[in-house]
Amino acid sequence: MKKVLKVLGIILVIVIAVVFAVLKYLGSRPAVPVDYQKTTETGGEIEAKYMANGPYEVSVKEEGTLLDFGKFWIYYPSELTETNRKYPVIVICNGSGTPLSRYPTVAKHYASWGFIVIGTEENNAWNAFGAEMSIRYLEKMNENQKIEDTESIFYQRIDFDNVGIIGHSQGGVGVINAITDTKHKDIYKCAVSLSPTNKTLAHNLFWDYDASLISVPILLASGEGGGDDWVVTGEQLVEIYNDIHTNKIAMRRKSTPHNEVLYKPDGYITAWFMYFLQNDEEAAKAFTGENPEIMLNELYTDQMIQIAE
Fold first, then answer.
1. Domain of 262: which CATH number?
2. Which residues span the domain enclosing 54?
3. Alpha carbon distances (Å) from 149 to 63, 144, 145, 188, 213
């Protein structure tokens, strides 16, 4: 009997070790394919243009912090250290258990189009704490030529008149709270909320938000027919859309699972930021005019748009 128990104990230890190894692997592998810009199907010329990487080489700065989320990640055009110009900003709110280190390709992609992109290792972003701290960190870097005898490469390089924010899932809730319920809510010029947790589920999880308070242009996107409905159904996305009383777009990408919403609509997401933060006239055509490309793209469904030109 003792021998049997000993064998069972060894088996249990092995099983536990395997489970931990699998969980560690799943928690460390990339949440986004490293080549998604090349492999994701696009359905329009504008979407294809902004799905590809932009013209800027990209560098990254990693900054540790004593805050709960551990560190900041800042991706930026490499030329920043050699120029005197200011660069627009994109703040990223993470989905549940998905720190930015699991999808750096997305941040690099935005930076390649001329943005300073900042995010954290935050696992719970619904209340926009990480987003708020990211803005405060950038303000400190922009205002001080030296921080504790270290040169700030971002000194007077940040364009705070052109700041956008994006988040996925729980991070989509974080976006709404960042632009409606934080100290720096008025600093944001536009926003993107990807598969935001529906209002009922968010309330049950104590992740409450009020989309009716949104005052900046916002793009809402989710998946359709691919398993995104457990987070936000088409009807629930429309409900959030109807709560908003400013410039807005909502769309669902066909046959797209929840996790893939993080990157598959990225051509239009990048165009959205280029339009509002860099005044890009080509990008604007995706959303404005008599026939906005986004309304004609057969990869998407249930498109709704209200943009005052």
1. 3.40.50.1820
2. 37-306
3. 15, 10, 9, 31, 42
